[in-house]
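hey so i finaly got around to running the thing on VWFA domain-containing protein from Scyliorhinus torazame. pasting the sequence first so u can double check i didnt mess up the copy paste, my clipboard has been acting weird all day
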Amino acid sequence: MAEILANEQFLLSELPQPAKAPWRRREPWQDVAITDLEPDDGLLVTHVNQTSGLLSTDGKRVLANDNQTSEEWLTNHSLEHQKLTLHHLLAHSRIVTNKDETDIKHLQLRLDIIDKFESRIHQMTDLYHQRMEWLREGSRKMFGLVKGSRVGLLIDSSAANCGLGRLQEFQTALLCLLDEQLCHRKQFYFLSFGSDLSALWETPRNVNVRTLDEARQWVQDLQPSGSCNLLKAVKRIVKVRKLNALLIILGTCPDQTAESLVDYMQQCILGRHVPIQAVAYDCSHHMTHTTLRALAEVSGGRYHSYSTGCQTQMCWSNDIESLMKELQRASDMLEKIQELRVGLMGDTLNEVMEEVSTEVAKIPPDRFLPQPPNHDRPLCIETSSFLPKTSADWLRQNGLKAKKLSLYQVLAPNAFSPLEEFVPILRKTVSSTLHGKAMMQLEWHDGTVKNVHVDPPLLYEYQKQLGQAMSKFERRADWLSTSSRRIWGNICEKRVQVFVDISLYNSLHIIHIQHSLRLLLEQQMSNKESFNLTAFGSEVNQYQPRMVPVTPEKLQAAWRWALTLQCKGSRNFLGALKAVIENDLSEQCDSCGLYLLTSGVPDQGMDAVCSYVAEICGGRDLQLHICLFSIGNSELSGMVPARYASPRETACALRELAQSGRGRFHWFQEAGIIESDDIRLILTEMEKAANYSQKCAVLVESLRKRSVKQSQTPPDSEDSLKMLVKREIRCRQKLLIPKPTALTLARMQAREESGEESGSGVRALTWRPSSGKAVIPPAHPDKKWIRSSAENCMKQNKMAKVSKSMFYTEVGNKVGAVYQKYPKVKSMRKTIPFVYLPKEEEICSTSVWLQKFGIKKLRLDLHKLVSGLDCEHKKRLVKTLRKRVSAKYCATFPRVEINGAVKHLQLHLHELEEYIEQVERVLCRYLQRLQWLLSGSRRLFGTILEKRVCILLDTSGSTNPYLPALRKELTSLIWEQLRKNSHSFNLVCFAEHVDTWRDCLMEATDETCHEAVQWASGAIAHGNTCTLEALQKAFQFADVQGIYLLTDGKPDTSCSLILKETQRLNQGRGVKIHTISFNCADSTANEFLKKLAAQTGGRFHRCHGDVDGQLAAHKMLAGGFSDEDNPNLPAFEGSDLKRLSGEINKARRFLTQAKSFRHLLLEKQIKPDRTDSGT
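ok and heres what it spat out for the 3d tokens, dont ask me to read them lol
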């Protein structure tokens, strides 16, 4: 300010000088044509009420420049450009010199100028805030403002970024980016990178509807793929020409260092202007931010950071930083204006403000935090009349199963399984259809279908009871989410030890922590026997050295102790836990509950903490319950925790800690409960009750529709006659054995006149009841009517039975016959069966599964359906024409070729439609089975079938690059398959020597699975491959049923020797060896593994082509089966995958042929219509 006042040159040039303007004569009026008028945009102000609309539209027009960065936008909207700096303000002042002090000059400003200047600065401040809010909306919040007309995208698809439940949110964010920003670009190019690269196209494509749909589908098909190889992706994309901007989206720390990436990028873009917009998507690793900042700076681009768990600062970028700097300049300018108002422009005011700030800094920050009412007052202790229970214990007494309200319990007395019985005459198993027509069909809990007798009054009463149970569950859920239970969950134990996290990171939330303790002491501690409180930061602070009995005085003293807590240090939870266990619970054997209230992960590693908690809780009645308080990441100095994790990672780690301590997990924030084990069980029971009620409604509605249909459709006379005949057959009584008698006079006359009558009369004379057992001599001794008893039985089996009655005529005493029931001709047509496939996946091999649900078993073989005897197309030789001519009826039916033979297509159009529908349902189920086989641990290890298994892992030196991934897959195998489906298991690692986890098979429990995972994490790759010794070790386990051998190459010993030795060891035992090829491209080694599996009846598995298989299955399920050849399934080599893919290809061929047959029938129907219309 002093320099400005002393600069006379500035004052002379900038301040207006008074001057007398000369008198000018007014020019005559002239019509002037204005050519540079702006077009009318419909907002010309003609009334004062339109001013606000005009101003709001101008503001939106300013923010609508979405293709400008903040630097570009500020060139027209900065304080300098708007002439709102101190330099421009002083330009409106004038110099005043006092008469007494001629050497001192003062500036004078009019008050209206200062007010106008201050008002304009406030308007610009609001405009900057609007711009910042606009930048924090939609895809701009997650990825920033995308620049460039031809944009190349590098998307991180590593397992760290697309795993742990992040994939769905990440795909949604990318789809939002496509719809909001990338759709306005000219060209774009997509490349995802993990361990491998995956490009959508080879070259950049123009943006249109088709390419946008392809990009959306590509984003939805993203899958985790190993580590984060950013350098490999950069090498690929710099070779793509015609790109003028790059967008790098990174969600984890790259494999390479920041220096190597920056050096390589600097060399590649030398001479090219390709700015990089580097985006850190929900990543807290500091190396990720350092690398992306460096890449943005070296290329002249911009940096953007986005976090899903941060409440105070969701995103930060160079654009927002530029606006923040401009806001700071505006704030400084407003302070200068305030100084001008009070007449102080020197150092006096600044010194006073610094003193005040120093004194304020000495006050603890919790003194400034808002406190709830009556925060410092004594407790108002509430008395509870009952002892609370966990939801698991409560549901044992009040759940649907306990109250016998399960739908299957209610319907069990009236449910019948379909009867199947083998008929020797038909030589096949026949199912009964009577119950299926008289009853309703319902899918049972085990996947089978049962015939159920529906009793509407019973189901109505059952639904009333379900409604009452639902109301009870809702009250329980509301009760669990109110008062202190919203923070601490349900405190159930008699003896309680509370741990409170008072690390420096929680200093802004100390009031919340104290208020949570107050609610706990008031509402849930009055009915306990003893308690204690422990607060921990870097140091441990206990309310009492040992647990004390619960009395009102002790609770009040504990609250006064809680009011003295102050946050400092980090989270030393393990030290606090050891102090309590060693000092207070070392000799206690009673039940005790440990409740931990924290906002982050402990200082120590989670493996060490989980191991210690599992050890102390294993031998006593002790449970550790976790209460996670989710807070925002405050950007304050001195508040960085020793170990940081994102909110999702924190929740996963603490959930695992609660499982190690056999306790419950409770996650909440200020808005409400996010996750609670107690509430989750109640909601699951409510969903089960709603499902039961829906099934009841479906049963009643189906019964009603069937009743209406039967009442509206009168029975046919033929059907009623059939029912009567069946009833007569069922009620037929045994006839008495007829006695042999002499021939009557009429029969003797008929016998004498036999030569004159036809053969029909003679046959009538030989008729006798079918139930007659006596031997009656034949009526005529002709040889052609004589049959032995064996021949008669064969003839009765082959020929259809005919029912007829005999009578005597009035003329000549002749005998006549009347047929009452004509023989039925067996139909040659085959009907389209209805296919039922279970939704739940069955743990079995593909060969066993297809024996139940294959195309042949489901009777959907199209060739058999159209290859009956009456479908044959025959030509006969006509001697007069001297050529072979088809029959007349051949032109009636379309002709198709089946397996090289020409057949007549006699299927109707509706039958083909039904067949196509059934095959499409079967194909969808097959593809779901394929996706299930390619997911989880089944992708690498296949499906574990036996109950007692031994896993052999090859840890030779060649597996060193893949050993970390193998450990993860093995962990997934232990928890996903061995823990759920196996009875006992063991692990064996083999390289130069064989290393076993245990000496025998261990039962699959939580403890043994934890120990197995820890043992497998210490495996080291080294040495050769001693496959034979590993197999010999596995056969030493007496009760082993299946051996799973995973290896990446040939063994050190002879393959034939291993086959012979394995055959010798397996004699009389029936142990199946399943072989797994892991990253092995050696055909000889794979052939050996196939022979070893086939020799013992096992399966060979190789996960080659799993990604292509998942993609092809997804495309077919999403896009349908319009094309038989696109997409194609990869050529799988594993037994299960190969069999299933072959069945899928077979079904697709049948589906294509059925659609072509349908087209033929449609053409056949159209041609007669055209001929009729022509005539």
